[in-house]
Structures are given as C-alpha cells and as structure tokens.
C-alpha cells in the first residue's frame, strides 16, 4: 500500500494520475496535487466557497474541472503547478483571469457542476445542474456553446466517432454532433 495523504474534507471526486502526481478535488473547497510516491501534498488550490464534486480532466499540462455550490459555481483551468490560468462565468463577454463562469437559474439558485468534464481534441464538455451541457474551446479558452436538456446533467459525457453522448435526469441518453 502506498503513502496515504489525509485531506480535510470528504472526497467525492475520482483521482487523476499524471506523471506520479495524483490530482483530486475535495468537498473542503480545494483541488489537491499529491505526490503518488511519497503521499506528500505538492500544492492545493482553494476554490473560495465551491466544493469539487467532479473529477478533473487533463490535457497538455492543464487540469480542468467544475465546482458545485450555491455561491458562484465555476469551471476552472489550472496548470500542473496549481496556478489558475482561467475560469469561466457565463455573463462575461470575454475571459478575465480573476473571474469565473457563473450559472443562474429560473428559481434564482446557482446550480453548479457535478458532472466531470470530458475532453475530445480541443473541446471540453461538462454538464450542469442548470440543465445544460456546456461546450468550451480549450485552445481559445472560451465557452463556445451549450445544449439545453430537459433536466439536470449529473454525470460525465462520453465522446466517440465525433458524437457526444450524455444522460440526464429525465432518464434519456442524448447524442450530439461534436462539431
């Protein structure tokens, strides 16, 4: 058995392993980087008041993940040193490094991301409790679209042969062109 590392909060997120580093989100509002060989924490990134339910996705030295919370849920991009590169908030016209992607709803609650992001090429897809699948261009660092579903999307999508598949709380599986 390896070297365990105690984290203050409960863990809902699955770990992602890259080059002997384990990345994992916690309900204590942090994303952690743990050295898999020693069990020692390399860094953690505090996400204000937003717990990480989703599993981070990794692409070319970057980690992407969504947060859930009633206080400004966001989608973050961090490098492997734990430095925020950008975050998204819906009402922004352009991306600002210190701001995030905020989701509003019909009942004035702010529903967040429990679905894990999935990456295909330069696109990232992530479902939300506000009944949308969000689509990001990772090369440009921006939101490029969203698909309205009848109910919340709580689980990760899958991508195959240019098609994005996801389920939602209405009991249906949806297939969208990845273009």
UniProtKB/TrEMBL annotation:
SUPFAM superfamilies: Quinoprotein alcohol dehydrogenase-like. It comes from the Bacteria. Residues 12-93 form the Pyrrolo-quinoline quinone repeat domain. Pfam families: PQQ_2 (PF13360). This is PQQ-like domain-containing protein. It comes from Geosporobacter subterraneus DSM 17957.
């Amino acid at each position: 058995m390896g070297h365990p590392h105690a984290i203050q909060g409960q863990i809902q997120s699955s770990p992602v392993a890259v080059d002997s580093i384990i990345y994992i989100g916690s309900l204590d509002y942090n994303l952690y980087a743990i050295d898999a060989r020693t069990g020692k924490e390399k860094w953690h990134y505090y996400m204000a008041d937003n717990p990480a339910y989703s599993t981070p996705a990794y692409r070319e030295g970057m980690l992407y993940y969504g947060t859930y919370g009633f206080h400004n849920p966001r989608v973050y991009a961090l490098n492997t040193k734990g430095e925020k590169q950008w975050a998204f908030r819906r009402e922004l016209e352009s991306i600002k490094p210190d701001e995030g992607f905020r989701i509003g709803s019909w009942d004035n609650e702010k529903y967040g991301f429990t679905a894990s992001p999935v990456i295909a090429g330069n696109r990232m897809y992530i479902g939300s409790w506000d009944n949308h699948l969000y689509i990001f261009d990772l090369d440009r660092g921006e939101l490029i679209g969203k698909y309205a579903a009848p109910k919340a999307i709580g689980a990760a999508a899958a991508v195959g042969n240019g098609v994005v598949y996801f389920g939602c709380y209405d009991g249906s599986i949806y297939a969208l062109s990845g273009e």
